[in-house]
Amino acid sequence: MNTNDNGGSSGTGNPASPDKDSASEIPVESSSDGAVVNDEGTVPGAQEDAERLHKDAADLDHIAVNAGQLNEEKVNSLEQEICMGEKAYHGLNKQMIMLQEANANLVIATIEAHKLAEKVEKAKLQLNHLAHHDTLTGLPNRILLQDRLSQAIELAGRQGRQVALMFMDLDRFKYINDSLGHAVGDQLLKSIAKRLTASMRSSDTVCRLGGDEFVLLLPNIEHAADVRLCAQKILAAFTESHKIDGHDIHIGVSIGISIYPDDGQDEEILIRNADIAMYYAKEKGRNNYQFFRPEMNIRAVQRQTIEASLRYALVRQEFMLYYQPKINLNSGKIVGVEALIRWQHPQQGLLLPDQFISIAEDCGLILPIGRWVLREACHQVQAWRKRGLPPVTMAINTSALEFLATGFLENIQTILDDICLEPNYLELELTESVLMKDAESTIALLNALVDIGVKLAVDDFGTGYSSLSYLRQFPIDTMKIDQSFVEGMTRNPDDACIVNAVISMGKSLKKRVVAEGVETPEQFALLLDQQCEEGQGYYFCRPVAAEAFADLLQRSASLTFPA
Amino acid sequence: MNTNELPRHKLIKSLMAQEAEAIVDNAIDLWERLAIQVTAIIGKNGFTSLYERSVFLVQPTFPWLAPGPQLSKSDHRFEELKTYLEGQNPAQAHEANSQLMITFTDILASLIGEQLMIRILRAAWGDSVWDNSVEVSKNA
């Protein structure tokens, strides 16, 4: 029985201990220190050790006897041999160390090569991911979309199935970027990407094409009704606000849908047609979805043509202003004027704002156009004054994009200063939706405008959503009743009630009330009956060019409307 | 059971399978004995490089393993590994150390060949252990 564990190299009784316990290999010194005793109580190998010791002692005696017989020559020869042996030993040892170092270097170099290869592989994967994904949202990009779409089309073609493509564009995303900054805009895009991904199936692909454009690929649909349901789900997901950087942001989305194989046989046509349907959704009032129809193509081509020529219209001085008088309904006298933009298109003739303003908003041209309108209108009213014509207040429509753009207030101040026009001759017309978008910050800007002397009007009143509480706080001079109510007031009692209510509210809040779109004597009579003070519309006068309006002003002392 | 498993892998797993209280000490002992043999061939720097690489490769599965032990003092060569293994339950410690040892020997075997790798393991852990393991796997 082994009574002591120190005979092995392991102190744990490890079954893997190497076979070092052979008694013949145990030196005499160690066997006396570590008592290894067998079952018979003897030390294993002790007999053999004793015999070996005896033999070694005999050898030593022999050496001692012969030592005296060694001559000097032999001693020198032995010394030389020992010296050479030592040299050889040291040489071998040195070689061993060198070999060890060489091996270490080879191992290290190989491992470093592995690491480098891994890094290269990782970088390749990252590059591949970057090439196929949008860096901001992490969603697949246009390249990956095209790849997946072409695969989906190929598979659907073989299996006789349909593929749906939804082209999504955020409604008025530019406002967010312009008013709250790009950092907030980016956060919003990320939040939208997350929401879109969460509301889709794992087999669907949500992509970001860039800017505020997203595309959803539904590679396996049974019926168009499935796509309709999906579009409704997306719109529902957009009803909840996004909480970003302390802001509660509401944003809508316009969706265009194309379906393989009906709306296109390849990915390029499918994407283009979904894009066209999306623009149609925008025109239909935004925040809705539209399936592609072939007739949309014609409109899309027209739109594209307009957008292309719109870019040169300012340079070519193709825009002009028409002027429509505002009439005091009791006296029939001109009390103000509204500037209305027209575009003298080189091929299509005179275009009305409805035909190009929404396009200008979408492509960002509304800002330079808006600045041109403001300067031109101010310049015109000053020119009439300098000619000695009766002074009138010039009203200008202001879009949300212009109102929220950086430097809006400063630009107005600069123009007024340049033209030396008193600010009280300028009135800005803003819609309810512009005013209510971010009411708290709007109040500050409205107050700043009023502080410099500019007048303010709420345009198209009644069509949007107004908080009456804010309306009371806004420094508004005028409320303009939307023409849709005026148009219906003689036929529809509800419209008449709304018109009456707005007039009463305006009086109570001590605001001027202007009825827009007065076109018939019946409407005029009813407005008079309801004690509306001012009106504007074809019944009194159509918008006219600057010279024609100067003529009206010239004759204003004797002229009353309706003429 | 994976029938294509290398005998070396089987051996390592079987050697690591100890009673709960002996797992860590046994693991460190096996490392120490392997280190002596490997260092004799590829030097201390080569061993360190191999060991650190192995730890790096198994870390995604066992994040609690440190980036690499302090090998400057041979006395404390596996002290850090011991501390980390002791911080885990026996099953986890067994699994992690088996994986680490297999990875280490896999890399070395890929550099010097499986046959030489086995000879090193025999020298480190003893011929009988290897023969027993092969015998057991034949009978299994």
Written account of the structure:
The complex is a heterodimer of chains A (563) and B (140). Helix content of chain A is 52%, strand content 17%. Chain A has 563 residues and is an alpha/beta fold. Chain A folds into 4 domains: 5-10 and 24-66, no CATH class; 70-132; 142-294, Reverse transcriptase/Diguanylate cyclase domain (Alpha-Beta Plaits, 2-Layer Sandwich), CATH 3.30.70; 304-554, EAL domain (TIM Barrel, Alpha-Beta Barrel). In chain A, strand 15, helix 19 (521-529) and strand 16 (534-535) form a beta-alpha-beta unit. Chain B contains 6 helices and no strands. The longest helix of chain B has 36 residues, at 23-58. Chain B starts with 6 loop residues before the first helix and ends with a helix. The A-B interface holds A 9-12, 14-19, 100-101, 103-108, 110-111, 114-115 and B 15, 22, 25-26, 29-30, 33, 40-46, 49-50, 53, 107-108, 111, 123-129, 132.
SSE sequence of chain B, one letter per element:
HHHHHH
- Strand portion of chain B, in percent? under 5%
What is the overall number of helices of chain A? 20
Helix share, percent of chain A:
40-55%
Number of domains of chain B: 1
Number of strands of chain B: 0
CATH fold topology of the largest domain in chain A: TIM Barrel
The global form of chain B is globular
Structural class computed from helices and strand pairing of chain B: mainly alpha
Distance between the termini of chain A: 133 Å
Whole-number tally of structural domains of chain A: 4
Q: Based on the structure given, which CATH architecture of the largest domain in chain A is correct?
A: Alpha-Beta Barrel
Give the full name of the CATH homologous superfamily of the largest domain in chain A. EAL domain
Rg of chain A, Cα atoms, Å: 46 Å
